[in-house]
Amino acid sequence: MSKDLSDYRKEIDRIDDEILRLLNERSKSVIEIGKLKKERDAGANLHTPGREAAIIERLTKQNTGPFPTDAIQSVYREIMSASLSLEGPQKVAYLGPRATFTHMACMQKFGSSAQYVPVHSIKDVFSEVERGRANFGVVPIENTTEGVVNHTLDMFIDSNLLIYGEVLQEVSHHLLSTSGLLDDVKKIYSHPHAIAQCRNWLETNLPHVPVSEVASTARAAELCMDEPSSAAIASELAGQLYGLKVVKARIEDNLNNFTRFLVLSQKPPERTGKDKTSLMLSVKDKVGALYDLLRPFASHGLNMTKIESRPSRRKAWEYIFFVDVEGHIEEERVKKAVEEVTPRCLFLKILGSYPAHS
């Protein structure tokens, strides 16, 4: 005889009980691992991104369904986040306030069990990690529409922090208000970058509505709570947090709109085999200097995924280059390329080798 509804629910309850038992069994092993890590190095980062990536990759390959493969990463992100909190508190500083896209990138990387510390500026994020008040910091580095975040690049010039990882966060802007009605919108608030990313939609659909710049998309949502005739360009998370309704979803002009974030730490992560290395260097002012800089990377078969220049602020017409290459600094080909480049530079600084976002 086929089972009825109550039989299936009893079966699910039994399975849930077993899942809970296994989660607690897993947690006991995690606690023991935390003890061993502290015995080996009391100041080491408990978070190991390479190990987490390997777990998710293994499980997604083994999954035969019907549980969706895409959901495995989300489920295990939270399992590992909760497990990591058992080893010790993980404080993460980020450019606040809550519900910004930086906050969402933090959640994607560290899950909901980490302790998040919102601060007022990118400089404050660096400071929190440098002073040991946070284990990690998360800062934006570039956007597919607006380009590089110069303030973040400039902070690396004088900071000794290392890049511990990277996160690619999809940036999807919603128009939010208390009523959820387009006709009620008489004023719009948002961050300058969000406004720029939605400019065509605004000019087409609300050409006569004034747009005001504020410090963050989350601040824009907060302001709309008490202004029924105002709307905010912000994330869906901001709408949920501040009790706003969606007037129009996904109003960004470029649907392929992503922001890359960097994770900062005082210590480097473990090598994973799928790593990226970031460098900061200044070349001598001469004909062919940039060519001489790029040639060693090409000759050693390294894929350069990014190069960005900034004024050095120390001497007129002197520039600092920020370079990303695929590979780890401990790899022979990366090491040799850096050794060849170093004599051609006024200075060279390795910002870190870290797992590439997958």
Automatic annotation (TrEMBL):
Gene Ontology biological-process annotations: chorismate metabolic process; L-phenylalanine biosynthetic process
Catalysis: reaction(s): prephenate + H(+) = 3-phenylpyruvate + CO2 + H2O; chorismate = prephenate
Pfam families: ACT, CM_2, PDT
One of the record's GO cellular component terms: cytoplasm
Superkingdom assignment: Bacteria
Domain ACT: 278-355
Family matches, as PROSITE patterns: ACT (PS51671), CHORISMATE_MUT_2 (PS51168), PREPHENATE_DEHYDR_1 (PS00857), PREPHENATE_DEHYDR_2 (PS00858), PREPHENATE_DEHYDR_3 (PS51171)
Signal peptide start-end: none
Domain Chorismate mutase: 1-91
Main location: cytoplasm
Record site: Essential for prephenate dehydratase activity: 259
All residue ranges annotated as the Prephenate dehydratase domain in the record: 91-266
Isomerase as UniProt keyword: yes
Subcellular location: Cytoplasm
Alphabetic keyword roster: Amino-acid biosynthesis, Aromatic amino acid biosynthesis, Cytoplasm, Isomerase, Lyase, Multifunctional enzyme, Phenylalanine biosynthesis
GO molecular function: chorismate mutase activity; prephenate dehydratase activity
Keyword Lyase: yes
Pathway membership: Metabolic intermediate biosynthesis; prephenate biosynthesis; prephenate from chorismate: step 1/1; Amino-acid biosynthesis; L-phenylalanine biosynthesis; phenylpyruvate from prephenate: step 1/1
Function: Catalyzes the Claisen rearrangement of chorismate to prephenate and the decarboxylation/dehydration of prephenate to phenylpyruvate.
NCBIfam families: CM_P2, PRK11898.1
Annotated protein name in UniProt: Bifunctional chorismate mutase/prephenate dehydratase
Organism: Nitrospira moscoviensis
Upper taxonomic lineage: Bacteria, Pseudomonadati, Nitrospirota, Nitrospiria, Nitrospirales
Name of the gene encoding the protein in the UniProt record: pheA
